[in-house]
């Protein structure tokens, strides 16, 4: 296109076509009848070529205008199969789009002017066709065929319906020249935040990113770690993760942890691996409320969990939720067990004295604060008060049992509901795995193992069935991942392994859908300092208010958002969320034209001039924001504004998924996805779930479990004998 004028006007008739028609006629005359233009055949040929060249130039300019007018009303389809998604070792593919600048703000402002309305709004034929379809919805056979004809989605249909994406096509149509938009992989360590309301393309964008992360290899041919948190349990997302893992040859490194289907889920102990023993108490007590008076109870809960965890480790037992709950409810048994362990190696004759003290105990000589305790516990406490024993774990347990029983129960009252959430039903088998049960084929994983294996993990938390348990488990996993990231930051992923170099870092891609349902205070250090350990967090949520409501503190919510360097803003319904993007953008000058006309009467009554008139076209500049919140609210589905690479604003649309014939899912996983789609019921409609054949307790069919490694349930003994 030629150099634009000061005031660019693209919403206009394509007047260049007149010139194209004249050039075509002149070229034809020069070729067929050069004598009519007083030219010989050779000069006629040269003139025809000159006319054709000029006509082609003007045709390109006319085509630009026509394409611009078409895109403002309707964008061309943009589809792509998952196999066609480009994977690079240097950049992350996002979609197609353009970098937004002052020109696009100027063009967008023009589309709102009344004189250009006919180029932006649907045509009269389109409106008539839609009204006709409404009236003929229940019409008899011949007329219903007419309605089907008007809905024919083809370029030959001048009144075909718009794609069901809503929004304003003009937001992307104002730039006909699109390019592939990518993000340098070095920028991902700064973390990415994706905001968008329900059903506008967040999951599609997640699938696009996850596909590339699973298939990407570094220069040494090694894959990257991919961890996907899915609170809702999206069957299509699970399918995408599995298909891409299989396509990349990583099926053996694929793990599924799903609270909704514990029979086929991998197992995970959120408190079984730690660098310092105090981390166990931090991961559990950190989920309790710390606001107001609750802060004191959380500190007490932290102390007692820490005492229990230290005692379990000294006894050679791996802490898990079941053990901790058991000893919180009955700490006397742990006190006796640890005392036996301690005295057996340090003072073997102490038990003779303790037994004698126990025999002399009765209701009269029992201290008031020890009423309700076992006699052996009372005897142990009295013995320890007489002898000097310096063991920190024993001292801690002794201080716990010295509390009045009812007072102790009040102190840990806030801790017990949390532990109940994590140890009820079959979920306890997932979160407190039995490491000695070799007959259980379900794998047990921890984050350090996943990172060292460079595995792919899908975490389905079944939030629609039980939001409380989902949040508690997700919070525990985040807390554990933060601890592992701290260890990697200090020592590398191969710490303790022979023949390895310390400080090695591997990209750890964490995709957290609906992350506001999972996050707590521990999420802040993950996005704040996790980049040093290779963590690359991509978080997806609806609004800023979701983050603030989850954390309960506006300052902390701002702290979380402030640690995301890359921002992808899809359609949102909350103005405050849209302003997170628009307030970071500068103001620009746009041109406006105004027509001014006037007439002035002549003061000379004897003169020949009765009046004078004057008409002016004025060009003025106005300062406007580069982008308004209303534009973010009006985005079509599958489109977003992206603030990446140090504040560069891009307008992007993601490719729509196209069916890929090679995406053959195993029968068992297809049935699993079908169960997920059919049986998920929102928590508010719990009564409807009674009509479904068992959401969690009913076992899955046997044919669902064949051939899917890492997700096969243990066979019963009777079935094994029958097969043998």
Automatic annotation (TrEMBL):
This is Conjugative coupling factor TraD. InterPro entries: Conj_coupling_TraG/TraD_PFGI-1, Conjugative_coupling_TraG/TraD, P-loop_NTPase, TraG-D_C. The lineage of its organism: Bacteria, Pseudomonadati, Pseudomonadota, Gammaproteobacteria, Pseudomonadales. The keyword Membrane applies. Coiled coil: none annotated. The keyword DNA repair does not apply. It comes from Pseudomonas fluorescens. Gene3D superfamilies: P-loop containing nucleotide triphosphate hydrolases. Keywords: Membrane, Transmembrane, Transmembrane helix. The chain crosses the membrane at residues 17-37, 43-66. CDD domains: TrwB_TraG_TraD_VirD4 (cd01127). Residues 508-636 form the TraD/TraG TraM recognition site domain.
């Amino acid at each position: 296109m030629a150099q634009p004028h000061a005031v660019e006007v693209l919403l206009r008739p394509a007047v260049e076509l007149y010139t194209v028609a004249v050039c075509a006629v002149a070229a034809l005359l020069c070729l067929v009848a050069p004598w009519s233009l007083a030219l010989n055949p050779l000069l006629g040929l040269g003139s025809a070529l000159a006319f054709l060249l000029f006509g082609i130039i003007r045709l390109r300019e006319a085509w630009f205008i026509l394409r611009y007018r078409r895109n403002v009303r309707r964008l061309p389809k943009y589809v792509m199969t998952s196999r066609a998604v480009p994977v690079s070792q240097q950049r992350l593919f996002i979609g197609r789009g353009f970098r937004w600048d002052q020109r696009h703000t100027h063009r967008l402002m023009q589309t709102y002017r009344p004189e250009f309305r006919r180029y932006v709004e649907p045509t009269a034929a389109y409106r008539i066709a839609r009204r006709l379809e409404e009236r003929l919805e229940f019409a008899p056979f011949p007329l219903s065929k007419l309605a089907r004809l008007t809905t024919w989605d083809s370029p030959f249909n001048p009144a075909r319906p718009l794609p069901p994406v809503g929004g304003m096509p003009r937001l992307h149509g104002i730039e006909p020249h699109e390019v592939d938009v990518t993000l340098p992989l070095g920028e991902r360590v700064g973390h990415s935040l994706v905001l968008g309301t329900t059903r506008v393309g967040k999951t599609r964008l997640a699938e696009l990113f996850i596909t590339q992360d699973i298939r990407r290899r570094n220069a040494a041919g090694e894959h990257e770690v991919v961890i996907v948190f899915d609170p809702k349990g999206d069957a299509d997302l699970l399918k995408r993760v599995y298909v891409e893992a299989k396509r990349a040859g990583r099926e053996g490194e694929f793990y599924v942890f799903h609270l909704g289907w514990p029979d086929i889920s991998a197992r995970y102990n959120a408190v079984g691996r730690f660098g310092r023993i105090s981390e166990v108490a931090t991961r559990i007590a950190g989920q309790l409320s710390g606001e107001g008076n609750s802060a004191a109870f959380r500190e007490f809960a932290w102390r007692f969990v820490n005492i229990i965890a230290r005692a379990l480790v000294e006894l050679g037992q791996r802490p898990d939720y079941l053990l901790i709950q058991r000893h919180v409810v009955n700490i006397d048994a742990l006190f006796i067990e640890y005392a036996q362990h301690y005295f057996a190696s340090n003072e073997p004759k102490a038990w003779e004295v303790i037994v004698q003290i126990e025999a002399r105990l009765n209701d009269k000589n029992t201290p008031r604060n020890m009423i309700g305790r076992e006699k052996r516990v009372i005897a142990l406490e009295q013995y320890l008060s007489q002898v000097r024993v310096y063991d920190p774990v024993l001292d801690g347990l002794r201080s716990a049992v010295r509390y009045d029983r009812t007072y102790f129960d009040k102190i840990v009252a806030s801790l017990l509901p949390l532990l109940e959430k994590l140890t009820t039903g079959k979920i306890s088998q997932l979160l407190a795995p039995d490491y000695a049960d070799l007959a259980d084929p379900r794998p047990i994983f921890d984050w350090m193992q996943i990172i060292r294996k460079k595995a792919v993990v899908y975490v389905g938390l079944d939030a629609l069935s039980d939001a409380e348990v989902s949040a508690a488990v997700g919070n525990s996993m985040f807390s554990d991942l933060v601890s592992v990231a701290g260890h990697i930051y200090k020592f590398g992923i191969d710490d303790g392994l022979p023949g390895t170099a310390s400080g090695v870092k591997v990209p750890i891609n964490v995709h957290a859908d609906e992350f506001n349902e999972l996050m707590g205070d521990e999420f802040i250090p993950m996005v704040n300092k996790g980049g040093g350990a290779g963590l690359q967090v991509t978080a997806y949520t609806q609004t800023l208010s979701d983050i603030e409501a989850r954390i309960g503190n506006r300052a902390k919510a701002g702290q979380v958002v402030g640690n995301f360097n890359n921002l992808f803003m899809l359609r949102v319904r909350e103005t405050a969320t849209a302003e997170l993007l628009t307030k970071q953008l500068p103001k620009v000058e746009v041109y406006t034209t105004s027509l001014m006309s006037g007439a002035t009467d002549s003061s000379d009554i004897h003169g020949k001039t009765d009046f004078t008139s004057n008409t002016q076209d004025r060009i003025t500049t106005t300062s406007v924001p580069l982008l308004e919140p209303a534009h973010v609210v009006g985005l079509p589905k599958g489109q977003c504004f992206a603030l990446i690479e140090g504040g560069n604003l891009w307008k992007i649309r993601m490719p729509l998924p196209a069916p890929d014939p090679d995406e053959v899912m195993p029968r068992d996983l297809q049935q699993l996805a079908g169960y997920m789609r059919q049986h998920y019921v929102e928590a508010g409609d719990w009564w409807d779930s009674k009509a479904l054949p068992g959401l969690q307790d009913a076992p899955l069919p046997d044919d669902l479990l064949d051939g899917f490694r890492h997700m096969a349930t243990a066979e019963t003994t009777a079935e094994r004998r029958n097969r043998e």
